[in-house]
Amino acid sequence: MLPLLIVVGIAVLLLLVLVIGGRMLVNIGGAQVGILERRFIGRPLPEGRVIANRGEVGIQARVLPPGLHVLIPFLFKVQKVPMINVGEDEVGLVESIDGHALDPGRIFARRVPNHDTFQDGEAFLRNGGQKGTQIDVLPPGQFRINTYLFRV
């Protein structure tokens, strides 16, 4: 009787490890972007902000690139979205949902350096990116852009 109880206990423990471990591993495909949301344990978003930086609760500015990622399942949630594709005969107009307010009298946001064609949302916000339509456009190609932070 005791060996049967041990076998059942080990089977239940193994099943539990597989379920929790399976939710810890997130695979982002080659043509996808992983939008990361921190659900608990962190600083609240500052007043007027929509997108979170590291350590803040909410949808994160950074995205997950293709590959296998290990995340704490109850702390993070991942949504997989397709990459942005700008055709050969097109340009991508970009609108930022978060950032500093536009300067009075301006229609377009000022140019922000070092954001890797809007693919590094954290750098965009850290370097003073502004809300609204951006002066920079996307050339033809594919881009791993946070679709919660930018509309293209």
What does this structure look like?
The protein has 152 residues and is of the alpha+beta class. 19% of the residues lie in helices and 32% in strands. It contains 2 helices and 10 strands. It has helices spanning 2-24, 121-126; strands at 25-28, 32-38, 58-64, 67-70, 76-82, 84-86, 92-96, 132-138, 141-143, 150-151. It has a 3-stranded antiparallel beta sheet. A 3-stranded antiparallel beta sheet has the order 8-7-10, with no helix packed on it. The longest helix has 23 residues, at 2-24. The protein is elongated, with a radius of gyration of 20 Å. The termini are far apart. The mean pLDDT is 89.
Short description:
It is elongated and about 80 Å long. It has 2 helices and 10 strands; from the N terminus they run αβββββββαβββ.
